[in-house]
Amino acid sequence: MLECPFNRDICDSACSLYIKPEDINESMLNKLASIGVFSRNEGTCSFRVIALAHARELYENTNTNPSLR
């Protein structure tokens, strides 16, 4: 059984939330890599991918120009 990722410092293949690049289809891997939330060569924690994707979405949809408000 895989270990809980919440009590580990590094998310690796022993974590239950770890995503290996070979487990994702090529199209999704390219999309996640193009927005900078996933490395094509290294795996990562799925919570990290979700958090980074949401942060990117918020960044792109936030109007930071006060003159347009």
Protein architecture, described:
By secondary structure, the chain is mainly alpha-helical. It has one domain. The chain has two helices and two strands. The longest helix has 16 residues, at 46-61. The radius of gyration is 15 Å and the shape is flat.
**Overall 3D shape:** flat
Q: What's the Cα radius of gyration?
A: 15 Å
Largest sheet at a glance? 2 strands, antiparallel
Q: Which structural class best describes the helix and strand composition? A: mainly alpha
**Average pLDDT level:** 75
Count of distinct structural domains: 1
Contiguous runs where pLDDT drops below 50 for at least 5 residues: none
Short description:
The chain has 69 residues and is mainly alpha-helical.
Layout: helices, strands, pairs:
Blueprint (H helix, E strand, L loop, with lengths): L17 E2 L6 H9 L9 E2 H16 L8
Antiparallel strand pairs: 1-2
Q: Which short descriptors sum up this protein?
A:
69 residues; mainly alpha; two-stranded antiparallel ribbon; 2 helices; flat
